[in-house]
Design brief:
This protein is an alpha+beta fold. Helix content is 54%, strand content 8%. It folds into two domains: 7-79 and 199-204, Glutaredoxin (3-Layer(aba) Sandwich); 84-195, Glutathione S-transferase Yfyf (Class Pi), Chain A, domain 2 (Up-down Bundle), CATH 1.20.1050. 29% of the residues are buried. The chain binds glutathione. Glutathione binds next to loops. GO terms for molecular function: glutathione transferase activity; structural constituent of eye lens.
């Protein structure tokens, strides 16, 4: 049987694609990291299953939707939690963070970071609302976590920790005024960030033109 081949197609930013890249790095699994530049997107869009990215190509077929991609990689490389209940909760965490990302992206990243939309007049009100939504989302994740452990479910890193870290890393960097002071979240975030394998990845990862 041929060795598994993986190709991740995403934009040249971290965003929804970074958790997949980080899991491949932690698993020491080679993959093709195809990064689409803005000007090429119109051509690439029609080749994707649903008209958006990320897309993961595997030797079994193409996978569309961030949560499906992350779940697949996590199952293959040992980043899913152990029990059926915790697996479902990990997916719930990822879907919650993915929804949040969509709202932050359309309301703030597009105008302020990617600069592809005019800055809305009520930008300060939007920041306030989204900061509250971030806190609500983190409180939801904290509530289903095992609060005594290093990561969300246990002392073993899972796909939910990796997605939480990659999504919040970008958010904290580009919109620091939205940062949460939830102590439980800061503990898990720092436990992921200071993992020596994650540090090694961060040291060598490709930077994007936008720095995110
Ligand atoms: N539900 C999808 C949403 C994907 C999504 O909105 N991707 C954005 C980039 S983060 C995109 O492809 N935008 C370009 C477009 O929609 O034309 C997922 O979670 O993967």
């Amino acid at each position: 049987m041929a060795a598994p081949q993986y190709k991740l197609t995403y934009f040249d930013v971290r965003g929804r694609g970074e958790a997949a890249r980080l899991m491949f790095a932690l698993a020491k699994q080679d993959f093709e990291d195809q990064r689409i530049q803005g000007g090429d997107w119109a051509t690439v869009k029609s080749t994707t299953p649903q008209g958006f990215l990320p897309v993961l190509e595997t030797n079994e077929g193409k996978i569309s939707q961030t949560t499906a991609i992350n779940t697949y990689i996590a199952e293959k490389f040992g980043f899913m939690p152990d029990t059926a209940y915790e697996k479902a909760q990990a997916i719930s965490v990822m879907l919650t963070l993915n929804d949040l990302t969509g709202r932050i992206s359309s309301q703030l990243y597009m105008p302020l970071v990617y600069k592809v939309m005019p800055v809305p007049e009520d930008v300060e009100a939007k920041k306030k609302t989204l900061a509250e939504e971030i806190n609500t989302c983190l409180a939801f994740i904290e509530n289903l976590s095992n609060s005594g452990s290093k990561f969300i479910f246990s002392d073993k890193i899972s796909v939910a920790d990796i997605f939480l870290f990659t999504i919040m890393e970008t958010q904290r960097q580009v919109l620091p005024e939205l940062n949460s002071d939830n102590e439980w979240f800061l503990k898990v975030f720092n436990n992921v960030k200071t993992d020596p394998r994650v540090q090694e990845y961060i040291k060598h990862r490709k930077t994007s033109p936008l720095g995110v």
